[in-house]
Design a protein that fits this description.
The chain contains seven helices and three strands, in the order αααβααββαα. By secondary structure, it is mostly helical. The chain has a three-stranded antiparallel sheet. The protein is elongated and about 65 Å long. Keywords: DNA-binding, Transcription, Transcription regulation.
Amino acid sequence: MSTPEDHVDRIQAEWARERPDLNVAPQGVIGRLHRLAARLTEELCEVYRRHGLSEGEFDVLAALRRAGEPFERAPGELARFTMVTTGAMSKRIDRLEGMGLVSRRAAEGDGRGRVVGLTADGRERIDRAFEEHMRNERRLLDALSPGEARQLEGLLRDWIARI
């Protein structure tokens, strides 16, 4: 079964015409991954929005939930888990605290340190959101066969490790 020409094919053809001296083949993979990532992000964010969360807020709540009882982490640890600056993390925590989904307290043994934890409402919200998130990811991945999904997962894991 042949897949019809797509947007990336057209871009490559234009570049090949304009710059025949360049090998534009990498665009076939990178361009499609970029477009797919943008589409997946939009599909995922739709679920977060239904739960009153942004992507970043979902990430913070999920990182706290994965910590296990008592569902707490230091702000710096949260920043590392979600790959944002501590300043950006502070803003996310402020918003989540204002929504009643997290609380902050002084770290034991360190008067200056803080610990962020899920409130009961925060745990309930992330549990509901994560359940829908997993159903949504399954729906998106069902476009591939189980074998294709395993193969793609392996290829992506290897590629990430190499670069």
